Amino acid sequence: MDWKLEGSAQETESHVLQEQEVTLEDTGEDGISESFQLLQIDVECEHREEMTLPTSNAVWRSKNVQRKQRHWEKIVAAKKSKRKQEKERRKANRVENSGIYPQHSKRFLRSLTKERLLEAKHSGPRLCIDLSMTHHMSKKELSRLAGQIRRLYGSNKKADRPFWICLTGFTTDSPLYEECLRMNDGFSSYLLDITEEDCFSLFPLETLVYLTPDSEHALEDVDLNKVYILGGLVDESIQKKVTFQKAQEHSVKTARLPIQEYMVRRQNGKNYHSEILAINQVFDILSTYFETQNWPEALKKGVSSRKGYTLQNSVE
């Protein structure tokens, strides 16, 4: 009997232990799942904190950086406002002057300029630039002459009554031609004549007038039946009467600009007075006179104060 009671007690204890194990197993699984949930919550919180750090850094910037940022924003806003005002001002000017100065496209203006230049070839005054004396010129002098040719052509394009330009004694393999290509954009497309021939063999001698400051005769008018010649010569040593002597050798008429007739010498510290002008300055005088028929106005445009001359009216 004791053995049976002891066996039944053991069985009862084993049943209790099994029930406790089952209970522990059930509670263990719930505890583990709950732990995983807590870990997941911690990870999500850390991830959210990392996501919010950049925006927090923007707040944490120093006051100096913020001040510089505000200053830069003010500058940008001021520039935008200025551009807007300038745009409105130009627009208002276009509206105001639309009846006086009609707006045209660049293509139309280029076409109009080309038409005027080609018309001058047939019916306008003719001007030759004698480039047969450039072989003794230095590189610096050639560069200056190339610049003068560019300015002369630019002034002629803008003129209401342009001349037809001819570059004579000009070879395409010369240093001057290379300098013109280097310095003058679109030089090969200039609307003018380029020839290797000398100006004295290209036109009848009786139609030629060589403009030189050494002539005794003042130019009175621009004659459409004449061909005017300018010596393409930049000489820093200032050799006198080079163009005058060349004209005499070919029995060609000469003339000078009427500086002495309409201008007087002005007192200056160096006591310097000169009637020698660059070819583009001489052309500006001829072109202005041809349009206005007014020598004082033309001379005022071409003869700078550095030459030591001033108009007679301004002295009086």
Automatic annotation (TrEMBL):
It is an enzyme of class 2 (transferase). Residues 1-26, 77-97 are annotated as: Disordered. GO terms for biological process: tRNA N1-guanine methylation. PROSITE patterns: SAM_MT_TRM10. GO terms for molecular function: tRNA (guanosine(9)-N1)-methyltransferase activity; tRNA binding. Gene3D superfamilies: 3.40.1280.30. GO terms for cellular component: nucleoplasm. Keywords: Coiled coil, Methyltransferase, S-adenosyl-L-methionine, Transferase. It catalyses: guanosine(9) in tRNA + S-adenosyl-L-methionine = N(1)-methylguanosine(9) in tRNA + S-adenosyl-L-homocysteine + H(+). Its EC number is 2.1.1.221. Residues 113-310 form the SAM-dependent MTase TRM10-type domain. CDD domains: Trm10euk_B. This is tRNA methyltransferase 10 homolog B. The lineage of its organism: Eukaryota, Metazoa, Chordata, Craniata, Vertebrata. The gene is TRMT10B.
